[in-house]
Amino acid sequence: MPRTTRTITFSLPPEMAERLDGAMQQQGRSRSEFLREAVVRYIEECEWRQLLQYGEERARTLGIGPEDVADLVEEYRAEVGQTQA
Q: What is the pTM of this model?
């Protein structure tokens, strides 16, 4: 049966490794579990920032400001509500 994970090796400064070990012990999790979740969260945060940046750029291009958001959300909800009815 093929392996479902890949082993990746990296180094940490001693202080960071100690903090990692303390945090994983406190949560009762393995180092792999802890680091997998940390990587997933970091990647999701990067993707979210990218999406926000795209939205800000599009809003600038379309001339949409913060003051317009509430009205646009209300319009969208009205449109979606009509199609679901």
A: 0.69
